[in-house]
């Protein structure tokens, strides 16, 4: 479709929910007709007699009331997530009036596999892909933020009332200063991150519906992948996925998704404070400066709308005759989005790749630890894990054993390295205690031997404590990093 | 009012007060699932008041008839507009008052229905209001209702996409205000005045304020109507009036106002109305100053409110500075366009002519224009004027005048850079530097000394080159391309200047040649970087260029071709190599246009020249080859 190979338009799909029971009871009829084969939506104006003034729009795909979550995912989302895993940037927008099924489409019902939405499905997809990959190292990070009344808040930060700033860096483009991000190693962990964010989003507001329908939420997953290239050099690709739950489109005219706002032909702004909109509309921007900033959302997602990204937009509709105007607005907007052309490229070896930073740090730490003789134990346990992986077919389980040890340490405060060290030591101690108990209970051993072994264990525990003092932070950092890398070894 | 007992009247006033309170204050707390609860309650109260008033009116009907003859003797001060009957009660007669009172309630009912999304019912009430008042002459009592009802109808029709109707109502409101102020001018009654017990009545100042505010809104709505009708000049005028009135009646937030005025200046700039543009900018700077001092960094660190204020003030002032930069830049560039001959050099005849005509015209003409657009607030007027005097609004016609404009622009460059630093504001920072570079470029046109002109271009190179080096093209592809292209062009210009200087000296020394070749190479390097940025990630040059890079890419090829052939070398082998490089670039352009005929029109001149070169260069190359052979 596109003229150039490097160029592609935003993929726009439309989904329509079934008529609700309430709507049916009230006697509203469905005015939306979908031709799934042709990808067409036809909208009938309820005020005119049948067959008159039908409006037809064509999209990349349309999903009618009978469509399943998996239809949308497999056809529309899956290819996008695959691209992200290859190092492209990807964005999925859900756009539509409140109550048309945006949340159902994006989140769905997590517990019911049939009804899971885009987000849980993509989590599953990403980590399944990683577990099946070979000769690649992955690092997956997640951030979660919200834009409400032009203020950015971190949903994963304790002090979530704090407003974050949108900044730019010559090296890495637009970023949010101090936005936290969490390394996640499996579906469970990334789900946990999302849940924490969702909880933050819902507390502190007396009117949750009002708040969430007016705020944009963006869940960002960064997937870094390191692979040996033909040049025997490690190359890192970074794909970034934005999962965007936009505010209800009924508020869209105010918040504006793009610079090219929803131009409601002739509506008058009542408040004098909108005088600036009028004036700036008169200015031809070419040789002038128009001192109104684009919305935060626009700036943050500028790559997704006409930049280096692949973008899918899911416009959600209600079929009822009572929402004719809104449905038409949504369709028009979606129709316009089709014209946005992106230029996606694989993000190779970006300077800010965290993975590289980790790899370098690990190398450095390894060197330091080697000197301290720490690594013998470390290596041993690494081998054990590798061996396990080789034995069992499911590679992710093979690593799982080691990972779980760290889970508890990271669960509530991932970045707190110190705590991690404590946990590690505690765990080791507990383990040794258990072993001690086992030795004590083992009647097959002679008392002498028992005593000797117990002493040895005791000594090991002492060593452990000393070890901690000696290696201090180094070990902890190293451990966190190594497990975060999600290294999957292939069969040797 | 005669037949209304004071207690009955008090109860009506109380109902009205409650309705107002419900509609304005309580309604904000209404729950999502019942969003109009308070509005509906207010509506019920308004309806009650309406029927109360009707009942009393019925009792007063006899008096009404008595009133009639008196009123007709009254000469009506203001003719109601066409849609009404034209003759009727005097607005200040008892019947007129009754009508106004009912009209006010109809007005509030209308607004109430509009706010609760019942547009047709709202329209009906508002039209009832207008019908009631149309029976009366416009007076101190009813002029506010007149205007506000029409404002509301204007909004309503605009919301229905019927701009013409909206325009009709709003323009009537406008002319009504103008006539009232001309013929009566007293502070009129406010809508709420009708239902206030005397001790709560508004002061004349307060009445004036409310009335003027309503009219400010009329103008503001008209600005939007004209914008929607694409009558931009009119829209601009009404925006300007809205700003003027905000200032005049002290109804503005300084920073917001200043930004709006600064933006309006940009509108004037595009229309080449530099006097108006400058006035807006001077006013913007002065009014922004009213927002207070920028808190110190230390204060900002201690207190979040201070920190936000610092950020806000810093940003807005920097934005205004950027509008000033554009003012200076456009003034210089427009002047250049006026003065340049067909090869882009200063046309001295034209310069002399413009200088002569300037003095004659200017003085009278601009005075007339000026009085129409002034932002007149007594306490700021002087500071605005003195700021205006710092920079001219007439086209600079010689270097000294151009330099003065340049320096103002440069001062604002430095000011805006303080806020828009590279670290954190990459795009803005670079845009400012690009403007700075453009200021130098425009100034260099006025500079007659070629050496000094060259130095100005060197300044541009010095500010742009580091940016081009440090910027990650992955995120700033567009800017990188702009910078590459501008650098290539700047080096090209420097190369041209060096050649011109050398021509004057008759002889090229080795140093000059080295310098010259260096400039050629630098220019080629940046054109090539630009061309490389178009390649696919695999390094392949696209077979078909996209629209937005089509002309730049072909021009870059063309320039590289020219640069190759201009390189100076004593060695025939090198000469040969340069020429064949040049030929292959020209050839690329010709080939491309053959394969993509639609590209021809984008590069007409370049293509024509390239075709010629493609036919000529081989001859030259062959001759050179022959010479080489014979020399051996």
From TrEMBL, chain A:
<keyword id="KW-0067">ATP-binding</keyword>
<dbReference type="InterPro" id="IPR019821">
    <property type="entry name" value="Kinesin_motor_CS"/>
</dbReference>
<keyword id="KW-0547">Nucleotide-binding</keyword>
<feature type="domain" description="Kinesin motor">
    <location>
        <begin position="9"/>
        <end position="340"/>
    </location>
</feature>
<dbReference type="InterPro" id="IPR027640">
    <property type="entry name" value="Kinesin-like_fam"/>
</dbReference>
<feature type="compositionally biased region" description="Basic and acidic residues">
    <location>
        <begin position="418"/>
        <end position="428"/>
    </location>
</feature>
<dbReference type="InterPro" id="IPR001752">
    <property type="entry name" value="Kinesin_motor_dom"/>
</dbReference>
<keyword id="KW-0175">Coiled coil</keyword>
<dbReference type="GO" id="GO:0005524">
    <property type="term" value="F:ATP binding"/>
</dbReference>
<dbReference type="InterPro" id="IPR027417">
    <property type="entry name" value="P-loop_NTPase"/>
</dbReference>
<dbReference type="GO" id="GO:0005737">
    <property type="term" value="C:cytoplasm"/>
</dbReference>
<protein>
    <recommendedName>
        <fullName>Kinesin-like protein</fullName>
    </recommendedName>
</protein>
<dbReference type="InterPro" id="IPR036961">
    <property type="entry name" value="Kinesin_motor_dom_sf"/>
</dbReference>
<dbReference type="GO" id="GO:0000278">
    <property type="term" value="P:mitotic cell cycle"/>
</dbReference>
<dbReference type="GO" id="GO:0008017">
    <property type="term" value="F:microtubule binding"/>
</dbReference>
<dbReference type="GO" id="GO:0005874">
    <property type="term" value="C:microtubule"/>
</dbReference>
<feature type="compositionally biased region" description="Basic residues">
    <location>
        <begin position="374"/>
        <end position="387"/>
    </location>
</feature>
<feature type="binding site">
    <location>
        <begin position="96"/>
        <end position="103"/>
    </location>
    <ligand>
        <name>ATP</name>
    </ligand>
</feature>
<keyword id="KW-0493">Microtubule</keyword>
<keyword id="KW-0505">Motor protein</keyword>
<keyword id="KW-0206">Cytoskeleton</keyword>
<keyword id="KW-0963">Cytoplasm</keyword>
TrEMBL record, chain B:
<comment type="function">
    <text>Activator of KIF1B plus-end-directed microtubule motor activity. Required for organization of axonal microtubules, and axonal outgrowth and maintenance during peripheral and central nervous system development.</text>
</comment>
<keyword id="KW-0963">Cytoplasm</keyword>
<feature type="compositionally biased region" description="Basic and acidic residues">
    <location>
        <begin position="351"/>
        <end position="369"/>
    </location>
</feature>
<dbReference type="Pfam" id="PF12309">
    <property type="entry name" value="KBP_C"/>
</dbReference>
<feature type="compositionally biased region" description="Acidic residues">
    <location>
        <begin position="59"/>
        <end position="82"/>
    </location>
</feature>
<dbReference type="InterPro" id="IPR011990">
    <property type="entry name" value="TPR-like_helical_dom_sf"/>
</dbReference>
<dbReference type="InterPro" id="IPR022083">
    <property type="entry name" value="KBP"/>
</dbReference>
<dbReference type="GO" id="GO:0000226">
    <property type="term" value="P:microtubule cytoskeleton organization"/>
</dbReference>
<protein>
    <recommendedName>
        <fullName>KIF-binding protein</fullName>
    </recommendedName>
</protein>
<feature type="region of interest" description="Disordered">
    <location>
        <begin position="351"/>
        <end position="370"/>
    </location>
</feature>
<dbReference type="GO" id="GO:0005856">
    <property type="term" value="C:cytoskeleton"/>
</dbReference>
<feature type="coiled-coil region">
    <location>
        <begin position="296"/>
        <end position="349"/>
    </location>
</feature>
<comment type="similarity">
    <text>Belongs to the KIF-binding protein family.</text>
</comment>
<dbReference type="GO" id="GO:0021952">
    <property type="term" value="P:central nervous system projection neuron axonogenesis"/>
</dbReference>
<keyword id="KW-0175">Coiled coil</keyword>
<feature type="region of interest" description="Disordered">
    <location>
        <begin position="54"/>
        <end position="95"/>
    </location>
</feature>
<keyword id="KW-0206">Cytoskeleton</keyword>
<dbReference type="GO" id="GO:1990535">
    <property type="term" value="P:neuron projection maintenance"/>
</dbReference>
